[in-house]
Amino acid sequence: MTRIAIVTGAARGIGAATAKQLAADGYAVAVLDLDAEQCADTVAAIEASGGRALAVGANVADSEAVSEAVALVADELGAPTVLVNNAGILRDNLLFKMTDGDWDAVLNVHLRGAFLMSRAVQAFQVKEGWGRIVNLSSTSALGNRGQANYAAAKAGMQGFTKTLAIELGRYGVTVNAVAPGFIATDMLRATADRMGVGFDDFLAGAAKEIPVARVGQPEDVAAAVSFFCSEAAGFTSGQVLYVAGGPKA
To answer: Which of the four pLDDT bands, split at 50, 70 and 90, describes residue 89?
Structure first.
């Protein structure tokens, strides 16, 4: 039986790598992002490797859009029982410069989006008596200058994860979080731009502070997500795994 996975924010970066990894693991994958057209490259890569994928456009912070997107996945691919809540944005600024809009946008996409997607998908998971939810947190959950909104959202993802693990465990659903550190993505490039540092220099500087002496790649995170989605992870739930090249809290 082919299981159906939804990966949000899957047009690029960690989401795209995760979607490709889950497809390689044998899942049919709904590649969800704000614009379905932006998912074309991820879908094409999965199909070229012999997998099955569906591009879905939806704003994860919009309740109606989420309901319609999950229903579409169920109709086109089948009942989704694996969900990776990866969608996220940055609106970095120091507290005194941070606007209401900066705060609301980040919390809405990360936390409200994960809530809406999880609520929609859990109905299928409970019915099937099996499921996996993986939420993307971040080392920023431990605090990071200029990211009060993002850090709060990513810390919130950890509390959300642990609570869902308690609520859904009896239905055969595990819920875990992956907290990446420095990963070479467009989002990290935006951080370098904000700091006025060249991207290569930014990565090189970061690598010096990481015990394994390199920054992470999206595939590093995808591998961790892959484990949490697997049958082998059936007794692992409510955990936060830092994928950061060294020890974190």
So the answer is: very high
Measured CA to CA, the distance from residue 90 to residue 106 in angstroms comes to 6
Active site residues: 150
Gyration radius (Cα) of the chain, Å: 17
**Cβ pair 184, 215 in contact under 8 A:** yes
Residue showing tokens 């606007």: 99
Q: How many CB atoms lie within 10 A of CB 157?
A: 24
pLDDT for residue 249:
65
Q: Tell me, what amino acid is at 83?
A: L
Which residues, listed in sequence order, are joined to residue 104 by a DSSP beta bridge?
none
Roughly what angle, to the nearest 10 degrees, separates helices 186-195 and 199-208?
Answer: 100
Sheet holding 4-8, edge to edge: 53-57, 28-33, 4-8, 80-85, 131-136, 173-180, 240-243
Q: Between the CA of residue 69 and those of 22, 35, 137, what are the distances in Å?
A: 19, 12, 23
Kindly report the number of other CB atoms within 10 A of residue 24's CB atom: 15
Do 209 and 246 contact (CB within 8 A), yes or no?
no
Strand partners, 131: 173
122-162 pLDDT, tens per residue?
Answer: 999 999 999 999 999 999 999 999 999 999 999 999 999 99
Is the CB of residue 113 less than 8 Å from the CB of residue 60? yes
